[in-house]
Automatic annotation (TrEMBL):
Protein source organism: Noviherbaspirillum album
Gene3D superfamilies (UniProt xref): Winged helix-like DNA-binding domain superfamily/Winged helix DNA-binding domain (1.10.10.10)
Phylogenetic placement of the source organism: Bacteria, Pseudomonadati, Pseudomonadota, Betaproteobacteria, Burkholderiales
Name under which the protein is recorded: Metalloregulator ArsR/SmtB family transcription factor
Record InterPro entries: ArsR-like_HTH, HTH_ArsR_DNA-bd_dom, Metal_resp_trans_reg, WH-like_DNA-bd_sf, WH_DNA-bd_sf
Key words of the record: DNA-binding, Transcription, Transcription regulation
One Pfam family matching this protein: HTH_20
Residues annotated as domain HTH arsR-type: 1-95
Amino acid sequence: MEVKSVIAALAALAQETRLAVFRLLVQAGPSGLAAAQIAEGVGIAPSLLSFHLKELLHADLVTQTREGRSLIYAANFEAMNGLLGFLTENCCGGNVCSPVTVSNCSKEGACS
């Protein structure tokens, strides 16, 4: 994933409403949700939602399709996995990492 794309994705997610929208769409799965369902799910007015969806679309974290008169939004799982891969590609100095729990991490942040 390109650094520019990573920065755009992280910037889009660095806002409470957009993060809530994205997490809701991840939970909904590939079928996505209509805009009205998203607004209801995160508890904001539909007029405010369009701004946040535009930001997520611009960052390529969300896809938009039309079903009849409804716009359906879904998480872009490929972009999400690319972002996660970018953030973890140098994890543990290139060594294979095991799942980390709080109990096996030191105060300095080193995990075993």
